[in-house]
Specification:
Strand order of the largest sheet: 3-2-1-4-5-7-12
Strand content: 15-25%
Oligomer: single chain
Structural class: alpha/beta
Mean pLDDT: 95
Radius of gyration: 20 Å
Low-confidence stretches: none
Number of strands: 15
CATH class of the domain at 8-195 and 246-278: Alpha Beta
Bound molecules: nicotinamide-adenine-dinucleotide, UDP-4-deoxy-4-formamido-beta-L-arabinopyranose
Distance between the termini: 37 Å
Order of helices and strands: EHEHEHEHHEEHEEHEEEHEEHEEHH
Largest sheet: 7 strands, parallel
Length: 355
């Protein structure tokens, strides 16, 4: 495929049927982009994509493929005149990654290699990648800036560190090879995405018992789970419970649109690979999250104090200044919005997506 056949409005969204990806599809369609999704549905259902089209009143194109299938990717690039890729496809359960590390490295790291190879073959070299604050590992810091050394502490996190390194190396090789269409890559390090689209039609639909705090709280509130365990109340934080930087998923995906625009602009004119934190810069403790949920929804959350969860940090929140400076992005929604939208999604879809 040559550059003439690329349509700058055509975005390939890997993992677009998933939680963050489906919200990104809505934002892309509403911003005038055309969306092509590739997803193997290992952790999602096509119902999310039907609802994306319902919310936006616009169609998208869906391919059910694994991103490790290079020939399937080559066919998509040959057909769809893709300009930029938003890469969400990946496995994300920390506990499972400790049990099945090879699966995580194969799916996440090899999957990204297969994707970037197909992209390079098609001369599509703009990429927005879903990285994670987990790449910072167990640093002593409370607030994380992009220039901190990386050092993840579990196979899932290490898969993200490895992918970031691969993408940085691909970009660096352009400088040596004087490539005339260089890689332009934004590594977006998410803090803790929560919430749902305000329509309540799409949201997070965890398979089985949730690992993350907000999905767990909302399933206790709706009566699917009996009791929340608060993992530790002896951390060196004001109330003793862990502090995180929760970010509304709609704010998060707006950051992706800003990143796509930045890749087209001056800052990436000569190519490059840069990391940006996507967080609010504000941390909340587990007990503050329970309180916010009780206040906004009027539901009482049954919880008990339990031992610390292995690998958890006391406190972790973003320095989001770089994303503001270079992408022109900052989170707009507050904790009440995040909780209200989570609850709206949960009550409208008590069993998640049913297909
Ligand atoms: P998700 O599981 O809801 O979505 C991931 C999607 O990718 C799913 O639809 C799944 O079916 C698909 N997928 C996985 N492996 C695939 C493969 N080999 N080929 C094709 N499709 C594949 O997860 P999410 O919460 O939407 O996360 C999206 C991305 O953001 C992931 O890369 C995740 O690591 C990253 N991230 C998520 C969080 C979070 O807390 N949700 C935080 C930081 C980073
Ligand atoms: C938040 C706080 C827990 C559940 C994880 C991954 C990370 C990232 C996002 C993708 C902590 C406490 C939780 C519960 C609790 N994913 N908690 N009871 O641990 O910051 O990050 O998800 O990249 O890689 O590690 O998020 O929502 O699991 O926990 O007390 O049942 O809630 O101890 O303080 P975390 P979380």
């Amino acid at each position: 495929m040559n550059q003439n056949s690329i349509n700058h409005k055509n975005i390939l969204v890997t993992g677009g049927a998933g939680y963050v990806g489906s919200h990104a599809c809505v934002e892309l369609l509403q911003s005038g982009f055309n969306v092509v999704v590739v997803d193997n549905l290992c952790n999602s259902k096509t119902e999310s994509l039907s609802r994306v089209q319902h919310i936006t009143g616009r169609p998208l194109t869906f391919y059910q493929h694994d991103i490790r299938d290079k020939s399937a990717l080559a066919d998509i690039f040959a057909k769809e005149a893709i300009s930029t890729v938003m890469h969400f496809a990946g496995l994300k359960a920390v506990g499972e990654s400790c049990e099945k590390p090879a699966l995580y490295y194969d799916n996440n790291v090899y999957g990204t290699l297969a994707l970037t190879e197909a992209m390079a073959d098609a001369n599509v070299k703009k990429l927005v990648f879903s990285s994670s604050a987990t790449v910072y590992g167990a640093s002593d810091c409370r607030q994380y800036s992009e220039d901190l050394p990386l050092g993840a502490i579990n196979p899932y996190g290490r898969s993200k560190v490895m992918i970031e390194a691969v993408l940085r190396d691909l970009s660096a090789a352009d400088t040596i090879n004087q490539h005339k269409s260089p890689w332009k890559i934004a590594l977006l390090r998410y803090f803790n995405p929560i919430g749902a689209h305000e329509s309540g039609q799409i949201g997070e639909d965890p398979d089985g018992i949730p690992n993350n705090l907000l999905p767990y709280i909302s399933q206790v509130a709706i009566g699917k789970l009996a009791q929340l365990s608060v993992f530790g109340n002896d951390y060196p934080t004001p109330d003793g419970t862990g502090i995180r930087d929760y970010i509304h998923v709609v704010d998060l995906v707006k950051g992706h649109i800003k990143a796509i625009n930045a890749l087209e602009g001056e800052a990436f004119k000569s190519g490059g690979c840069k990391a940006y934190n996507l967080g609010t810069g504000q941390g909340y403790s587990v007990l503050e999250m329970i309180n916010a949920f009780e206040t906004v929804t009027g539901q009482r959350i049954n919880y008990k104090i339990a031992p610390r969860r292995t690998g958890d940090l006391a406190e972790c929140f973003a320095n989001p200044a770089l994303a503001l400076k270079e992408l022109g992005w900052k989170a707009e929604k507050n904790l009440d919005d995040m909780v209200a939208d989570t609850w709206n999604w949960q009550t409208k879809n008590p069993q998640g997506y049913i297909q």
